[in-house]
Design a protein that fits this description.
Elements (H helix, E strand, L loop, with lengths): L5 E14 L3 E15 L4 E5 L6 H8 L7 E6 L2 E2 L12 E4 L13 H12 L5 H14 L16 H13 L5 E5 L7 H18 L2 E5 L3 H7 L2 E6 L2 E7 H6 L4 H8 L6 H6 L30 H5 L5 E4 L2 E3 L8
Length: 322
């Protein structure tokens, strides 16, 4: 039996884009991503908008059919033929808590729908009790069950989405930027809810976000994506304190520091140029056009992830520690 709950190997997700009258070209949203997650672990996935973070999460759950690669859950390779057998154990919390909730359904029906689909109760009373238990678990109460989504704040709506994901007792949840649409004060409350649930239920998370400090707080490890590929992965504190890939270094240098004195002495590492189009990827390393350390080798060969220290992997030919 593998020590990992989830293993992703060389995952690719290409979307065909029409080019001319008769042909199409592939948009490489995810282009060879590999990582693993242990039971009860949180892996943070960060990167710029459009780098493929959300696509990775949705492809793992087969909301998008993978173009290539392997997704292995609890020792079993996930395919379109057997994904329904694993739906209960693999769930998702969406980014926008309002658009992901049906405005015509009460909270009881939203949270109870997974129970209905998987037939996880034997009586109406058991169903109602289960819904109340789930709402209490995420910080809501039984009175909320009779209301509709528009009657709640953003943070409360996200808690409803979390309760819906928990309804089928999953072991793994994709958290697709679950706090990015919330106020900062509410973000902290929802993050604490995720952490409490993990301690109580032993759930593993793939936590997708932009905010590196939020990801560092909740994650045991962090993976950094750029143009559909992971360029660095290591323990969360290691990535923040000792980034090695030039792209990660630039992201870390952009984190705001509340201490003015420290902020003035900190070296900012701006990125030059624009993000290349995934329809016309540069040769060799995708980050090469914006990298201050690029060499001829970077133009000729695309670097693969390699271990530079225990548990610290990067995809770079010329790493430089700041």
């Amino acid at each position: 039996m593998s020590e990992y709950l989830l293993e992703v190997k060389d995952l690719k997700q290409y979307f065909p884009i029409r080019s001319g009258w008769f042909g199409s070209i592939p948009l490489k949203a995810v282009d060879g991503v590999s990582f693993n997650i242990k039971p009860g672990e949180t892996l943070g996935l960060v990167g710029e908008s459009g780098c493929g973070k959300t696509t990775v999460g949705r492809t793992i759950l087969h909301l998008y059919k993978p173009t290539a690669g392997e997704i292995i859950y609890n020792g079993t390779r996930i395919t379109p033929q057997n994904i329904e057998e694993h739906r209960r154990e693999m769930q998702i919390v969406f980014q926008d808590p309002y658009s992901s909730l049906n405005p015509r359904m009460t909270v009881a029906d939203i949270v109870g729908e997974p129970l209905d689909i998987h037939r996880l109760y034997s009586s109406k009373q058991e169903r109602a009790d289960k819904i109340t238990e789930l709402l209490n678990l995420v910080g809501l109460n039984s009175d909320h069950a009779r209301r509709y989504a528009h009657e709640f704040s953003g943070g409360q709506r996200q808690r409803i989405g979390i309760a819906r994901a928990l309804a089928v007792d999953p072991k793994f949840i994709v958290c697709d930027e679950p706090v990015s649409a919330l106020d900062v004060s509410i973000q902290a409350q929802v993050i604490n809810t995720f952490e409490d649930l993990q301690k109580k239920l032993g759930i593993a998370y793939l936590f997708i976000a932009h905010d590196l400090l939020v990801v560092q707080h909740i994650s045991q490890r962090i993976a950094v994506m750029y143009l559909g590929r992971i360029v660095e992965i290591a323990d969360a504190d290691e990535v923040i304190a000792r980034p090695i890939h030039p792209y990660t270094q630039s992201l870390i240098s952009a984190i705001p520091i509340p201490d003015p004195k420290t902020a003035r002495t900190r070296k900012r590492i701006p990125l030059e140029g624009d993000v290349p189009s995934p329809l016309k990827m540069p040769s060799g390393c995708p980050f090469r056009p914006r990298c201050r350390y690029a060499t001829e080798q970077c133009a000729q060969q695309r670097p693969e992830l390699r271990e530079v220290s225990k548990g610290h992997f990067i995809a770079c030919w010329n790493p430089h520690e700041e």
